[in-house]
TrEMBL record:
CheW-like domain ranges (all copies): 19-123
PANTHER family: CHEMOTAXIS SENSOR HISTIDINE KINASE-RELATED, CHEMOTAXIS SIGNAL TRANSDUCTION SYSTEM ADAPTOR PROTEIN CHEW
Protein's organism: Cohnella rhizosphaerae
UniProt name for this protein: Chemotaxis protein CheW
A GO CC term assigned to this protein in UniProt: cytosol
SUPFAM superfamilies cross-referenced by the UniProt entry: CheW-like
Length: 123
């Protein structure tokens, strides 16, 4: 498990150091990124409890240290074919406002500084 955000830092200073920084991850042969300020941790794939009647890309929930977190397979959300999970498959736990969400990705790569002009939204 890798913790990305360290607590105790001044919020304004932390936001400045995280500006234009993205955690990059792979889905098949494509690379994507998510703003590092939203990432709380990265964990290996684990048992996911299925919940009936969810959209196909919502795989269910996990219990992470007593906190229930819904988990989405980003591959399915982006309409890519389902692939068997491997030892490189990760769950990126993100916090956006009051919502925590686990994002299943094929693998995590690195944190990069990317200028806003170089960012291309997913097709």
């Amino acid at each position: 498990m890798t913790n990305i955000n360290e607590s105790g830092a001044d919020a304004g200073q932390e936001e400045d150091t995280q500006k234009n920084k993205y955690l990059t991850f792979a889905l098949g042969g494509d690379m994507y990124g998510i703003e590092i300020r939203h990432v709380t941790e990265i964990i290996g794939i684990q048992k996911i409890t299925e919940i009936p009647e969810l959209p196909a890309h919502m795989r269910g929930i996990i219990n992470l240290r007593g906190k229930i977190i819904p988990v989405m397979d980003v591959r399915l959300r982006f309409r890519k074919p389902l692939r068997e999970y491997t030892d490189r498959t990760c769950i990126i736990v993100v916090d956006i406002g009051e919502l925590s969400l686990g994002l299943i990705v094929d693998s995590v790569s690195e944190v990069l500084s990317i200028a806003e002009t170089d960012i291309v939204p997913p097709a």
